[in-house]
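Here is a typical sample entry:
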Amino acid sequence: MARVKIDMPEHFRFLTQLPVRISDVNYGNHLGNDAIMSILHEARMRYLASFGATELEVSGTALIMADAAIVYKGEGFYGDQLTVEITAGEFTSVGFDLFYRISTFRGGQLAIIAEAKTGMVCFDYSARKVARLPEELKTQLSKTNA
């Protein structure tokens, strides 16, 4: 069976922390895969907010998610404090990729929970079509790269 592979960057400059909530835990008593997507979304909103942006307004455009890939590396549990690191890369004329690493410290050891990538596309909601990546946004996103 072919597995999803993500070429993760070496360095991340943005990080945020989120707790694993009881509603994030599934019947296996660990962090559910659906909760990972929700955590990525929350972290992405915080990342954008760190430079005064939202998904609906960033440098004169909006953003939509075109695709997502997640590679699960370990389990997360209720009470874990997750660190979500984010960086941007793979710029095109209409978008870019965001890379995420989710980890926690447990028992004095770093545990990687998941690595992920979302393809973000600039979008003009009034015209209902894909838009060009503003140079200002590309410059801002590039500042988060190592």
Strands lie at 14-19, 62-72, 81-89, 95-106, 109-124, 129-130. The longest helix spans residues 33-49. The chain has a mean pLDDT of 93.
